[in-house]
Known about the structure:
Layout: E1 6-10, E2 31-32, E3 35-36, H1 37-47, E4 52-57, H2 62-67, H3 72-80, H4 84-91, E5 97-102, H5 109-114, H6 117-120, E6 125-128, E7 132-135, H7 140-151, E8 154-160, E9 170-179, E10 182-190, E11 201-209, H8 213-219, H9 230-237, E12 243-247, E13 251-254, H10 258-269, H11 276-298
Parallel strand pairs: 1-4, 1-6, 4-5, 8-12
Antiparallel strand pairs: 2-3, 6-11, 7-13, 8-11, 9-10, 10-12
Amino acid sequence: MSKVKKAVIPAAGLGTRFLPATKAMAKEMLPIVDKPTIQFIVEEAVNSGIEEVLIITGKNKRPIEDHFDANIELEQHLESAGKTDLLKILHDQPDVNLYFVRQPYPKGLGHAVLQAKAFVGNEPFVVMLGDDIMESDIPLTKQLIDVYDETAASNIAVMEVPQDETDKYGVIDPEAELESGIYNVRQFVEKPKPEDAPSNLAIIGRYLLTPQIFSILETLEPGAGGEIQLTDAIDQLNKTQRVFAKRFDGKRYDVGSKIGFLEMSIEYGLKHPEIKDDLRNYIKNLAHTLKQASSSEEE
């Protein structure tokens, strides 16, 4: 059985939910305090044992490549200025082989993943979406790899979401829970209406797939939104080989939404050694000010 050592990160989206900031800037480079969101994803891959990462890019995404590349002029400047602490930050990059390929047209997540066919070859691989940053003792990607090591089968990360939000996600129709948090799946459904959703277990941006997914994607008709949907391809794959669902019980930050981005920024900031104390004091003072303002309005 092949070892899972490759990951694919689709990063070709337009980032329209963060306009105007993303008009000329890759949304994946928006910083959580001082770290671009995509670096969190790459670090999860490395911490899960991934050895090679392919990032699918598009227009205005060159800064992603530049971020993971060396900057000799900046390094020389910091070294000559004696700023060794900042130089260490520059050198503290994820230790992984990184590759890049462009998705020429925005035809959906399934089409983006199809661009990785040559990179993946005949090996199992992980797809990691940059809008979802996961926090858990064992990285979610490592959890999926562990399931694959036991089953030799594709498996998809899911978690419970409010029933009225199922139309924002791919959702599974669970057949049975085989063991704690691992499900057999009857069907994978892309963005069902809440009244039609077979469950509230939603796909959350981590997929471990066998290479057979590519032959399906190559002939798949457009689905929801007129795009090639990865969920539809997974549903077809499930008809010929088992695809499990793995429930994630950790913390998920949807940094593709404004509120999720702010939540992640605040919580990461509260752990950041440089600003955590000042941020904690600011939040306390802000809470006191808001409480006073609320009391004044009630009088």
